[in-house]
């Protein structure tokens, strides 16, 4: 085998490893740090590739659904050590969505986002209820914070929508 062929095979192997990593990262949970980190980088790159604020908002909304699923999954699997960062990621993204709607005057997105936030409040409340509270672990408070942040964001969106209609 020539050096050129070896180099080409090496590059193919590297590309296959990268492709497999990206595929595996799609289903990574926060407790698998390497793949989850790769997943987050992918999401950030994909978000930056979106040019229109409406497209960014739609993708952020999809990501918010993923963050909720991750948080719910962690509690159900009793993987409590990752609740704080997951809850923070969730509330931060929800706030960014609300801010993007208001900053870009997207009154057409208020209703769908309001519905999403209300549905998420229900899921978060269910997660909060099943979280064990008779232990030294007080991470459940971060889930409660997410519920409260959604209330704040819903109020902001409601006031924004009312002001836009006036």
What's a concise summary of this model?
The protein contains six helices and no strands. The chain has about 170 residues and is an all-alpha fold.
List the helices and strands and how they pair.
Blueprint: H1 3-25, H2 33-49, H3 53-76, H4 83-103, H5 110-130, H6 140-165
Helix pairs in contact: 1-2, 3-4, 3-5, 4-6, 5-6
Characterization of this structure:
The protein has two domains: 1-49, no CATH class; 51-165, Four Helix Bundle (Hemerythrin (Met), subunit A), CATH 1.20.120. It is 80% helix and 0% strand. The chain contains six helices and no strands. The protein has helices at 3-25, 33-49, 53-76, 83-103, 110-130, 140-165. Helix 5 packs antiparallel against helix 6. The termini are far apart.
The percent range for strand residues is under 5%
Classify the fold: give the CATH topology of the largest domain.
Four Helix Bundle (Hemerythrin (Met), subunit A)
CATH class of the largest domain: Mainly Alpha
| Secondary structure category | mainly alpha
DSSP summary: helix tally: 6
List its traits.
166 residues; mainly alpha; Four Helix Bundle (Hemerythrin (Met), subunit A); 2 domains; 80% helix; flat
